Amino acid sequence: MGRAPQTTPAGDETWRRNLLLEAYRLERAEDTSHLALQAGFASLAFASIGLLAGLMLNVCSVGYAGRDQCVPAPDVLLAGAPLVPTALLAYLAANALRSTLRSFHMRALERELAGTVPDTSVESYPGLTFPRGAELTLFASPTALRRSGAARALGVLVMLALIVGYVGFLAVIIAAVSAPWRLIVVAVYGAAFLSIGRQGVLAVVDGRRYFYRAVHTLDASLGEDLQPRPARPPGTRSLTQYLLLPRPDSIPKAFLIVVAAALAAVVDGVSLGGTVWTVLLGVVVFELLLYQSRYQLNDIRGLEEDTSDPAAAERQRLPVRPGEARFAVRASLVVAAARIYAAVCLTLFLAPPGQVVMAVAAALLVILSAIYELLRARSGARLVGVVLALGYALRAGVGVALVEAARWPHPEIVAGDLVIVVVGAAFGSMFVAMTWTLHAVCQAGPVGADWDVPTGWRSDQARPHLAPLLQFVDLAHWEGARPADWKVVQALRPRTSLVAPWNLSVLVAAAGAGWLLVAWRHVDAITAVSAVVCLAIAVVLTQTTSRGALVGIVSALVLGGAIAASVLVDTVPAGAPLISAVPLLCILATYRVLAASSYFEVKSTGARAGAAAKQAWDRAFRAVIGGKTAATLEREGRPGP
C-alpha cells in the first residue's frame, strides 16, 4: 500500500490555523499572569510610598514629629529614599508597554482567526476560553473586554493615585534636604518621572502607533546581519567615549588651577591645608564640567571643519557616523546641559564665598566663549589667541580666588596673586600659539607639485585664525626634504624669530615664573633679580637649537636649589620653595617638548602614554608569571593578563 503524499505546512490551512490558535492561547495565558504581576507591583508601589512617607514623619528635617522625638537623617539618605518606588513605577511603565504590544498582537491574531474561520463560535476550539464565556464570538468579545471604558477608567485612577502619592513624597524629600541635594533630587527623579510618564502615555494614549513602529522596527532588525560589527580603527573613539570626556588631552590644564592655588598660598603666607577640598571641587566644576561642556559646543559649531581636517584622526573631535549627525549633535547638547547642571549642583556644596567665585568664573567663561566663536572665523590668530590665553588666565584666577575665598571675610590680594594670573595667561598664550602653528603647518604645508609653485605656504588651506602664524615658520628649511605628510614634521625645531607669538609669550611667562621662584622670601630685590635671570634664560632658549641640554641644566639647578631651601630655611613652610619652582620648570619643559614635536606627536601623547603603560604592565605580568608561562600564553594568542 502506497504512502499518501504529504502537504507542506506552508500550504496547509489547517496547520496555519492551529499555529495561530496556539499562539493566541499562549498570549492569553501570558496576559493573565501579566495582570496579576501588574497588580502585585502596583500594590508594592503603594506600600513602599506609604511606608517611606510614614518613616519621613519622624525625620527632623521634615519637621512633623516633635523635636524631642525626631530622628536626624543625612541628606544623602533622604535623597535615596525614593529609589524603591521609582524602580517599581519604572517596572510598571515598562510592563504597560509590553501589555500594549501584547494587546494589539492578540487583536491581530483574533482578526486573523475570525477571517480564516468566519461565523465560528469559540466552543469549537477546545482549550480556548474567555473570561466572559464561550458564547462570545472569536472576533468581538476579547476586544470589547480589553477596551472596556470602565476598566480603563479604573486603571487610570490607580495610576493617578500612584503618581499623586509619588509626586507628594518627592515634594516632601525636596523640602527636607539642603539646596544642592534639592537640585540633585529634582534632576535624577525628575528625569526618571518624565521617562516613566512618557512610557505610560505611549502605552495608554498612543498604543496603536507604538505597536506599528515596533512591528516595523522588528521587521527591519530581522534583515540585519548578526555578524559582529567591524571594530573601530585604532586611535578612534566612540560617541559614548567622547561624551564621557570630550577633550581628554585638556585634562592636564586642570593642573594649572591646583598650581595657582598652591602658589597663592605661598605668596600669601597661608596654609593650603584648609582649602584642599575647595580647590579640588573647584577643579571638578570648572575643568571637568564647565570647560568640557564649552569644548562640546566648540566641536558642534566646528563639526564640518573638524571632519575635513587633515589631522581629524589625531584631534578626535565629535565622532559622527554617516547619517547620524543629528543624533550626535543632540546627544552632545544634552550631555553638555547635564554637565552644566551638575556644575551648579556641586558648586552649592562650597561655602558662599566659593560659590561666588565659581559663579563669576562661569560667567567669564561664557563671555570668553562667545567672543571666541565670534572672532574665530573673522579675525587673525592674534585676537583669537588672546581670548584663549585669557582662558588660561581664568584658570589661574580661579585657583587664586578659591584660596582668597577661604580667607573670607579677610581676603588680601597681593602682587604675587596678580603675577600668578599673568604667568597663567602667558603660559596659555605660548601653548596655544605653538600648537596652533603646528596645526596650521598640517593644513598649509605644500605637498607634491605644490613645491614647484613659488607661493610658499598654502595659506588658503589653513583656517582663518591659524594662517597668520605661518609667517613665523621658515618653509625654506624643508625645501630639501619636501615632506609628504606635514603632521609628522617638527616645524618648530629650527630657531624662530624672537618676536614670534610663542617666543614673546615664553619671555613673559619665564620672567613671571622667575619672580614667583623666590616669592616665598618676600624680598623685592631678590625677586626682581630672579625675574631678570629667568628672562635671560628664556631668550637663550628661544634662540638656540640645544634646548634639551639647556632645559636639563636649568631644571637641575632650580630643583636642587628648591630642595636645599626646603631643608635649610626654617622660616617658611618646608614645601614652599618646591611649589615656587613648579611654574618655571613646567614652562621650560613645555616649550622644549612642543618645539621638538610634530602635531601628530602632540595629539597622540595620551595614546602613547597609554601604550607605554600597557607595555609596562605586560612586562610586570611577564616577570610575575615567568618567561616560560608567558611564552605559552603567547602561543595561545593571549600574551597579556
Record keyword descriptors for this entry.
641 residues; mainly alpha; 3 domains; 23 helices; 68% helix; 0% strand; disordered N terminus
The major beta sheet can be summarized as: none
Q: What structural category arises from helix and sheet content? A: mainly alpha
Helix count from the secondary structure assignment? 23
Alpha-carbon distance between the termini?
Answer: 69 Å
Give the uncertain stretches in residue-range form.
1-8, 119-147
DSSP strand tally: 0
Indicate the overall shape. globular
**Beta-strand residue fraction:** under 5%
- Based on CA atoms alone, the radius of gyration comes out at 34 Å
SSE succession = HHHHHHHHHHHHHHHHHHHHHHH
Domains, number:
3
Mean pLDDT: 79
Helix content estimate: 55-70%
What would you say this structure looks like, in words?
With 641 residues, this protein is mainly alpha-helical. The protein has three domains: 11-218, no CATH class; 239-381, no CATH class; 414-603, no CATH class. Helix content is 68%, strand content 0%. Helix 10 (276-301) packs parallel to helix 14 (352-376). It is globular. The relative contact order is 0.06.
